[in-house]
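A quick aside before the break. I want you to see a complete sequence-to-structure record at least once, exactly as it would be stored in a machine-readable document. Don't worry about memorizing anything.
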Amino acid sequence: ADSIRADAGAITYRSTLPLSGEWKTHQDGLTRELAMSRQNMRVRVFPLSLPQHVAEGANGRVETSDGSLRMSAESQQAGLCAAVLLEWSPSLRKSSVDWTVLTIAEEGKRLDAGDAFGARIRMGDKQFVFFHSLTKSRMPRTVMGHHTPYESVIAKFEAGNFLALLNVEAGQGETA
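That is the input. The structure line, written in tokens, reads:
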């Protein structure tokens, strides 16, 4: 995931990841999931910071072109988090997937996406949560009922509990 802050709103984001070799790509017609395959390898691309279904408007896109995976996004706020999950596990290859952008709160008040971002993804019977704070907070922030003082969290969500896989504290003097 990339996290961008600006002094004022209106952020335009572009990211390019060069791909090695020839990849065949398939864009799902109903969702923003992108599948890439080469020889015996298959990689699924999930742009977590965008709504899953193409029928919902989005401020960005994920695509392949000129041998690269490209993501673009726009925001009218002073912060933007562009999160993409690449999944290549053979055990999850045929699993159904759904994801959603989550509401983040601080002291009972909903935060704008320019302040904090969260997403939940379910792959088969496994669920994961990604959270990232773009601005400093005085109090722990809440995502899916989980209060966290961390800048970033990647967790497995199992039986209503967060099992932390990664917690990142904000560095000294950093904005978030």
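Two observations worth writing down. The chain has a mean pLDDT of 91. The first strand starts at residue 2 and ends at 5. We'll return to this after the break.
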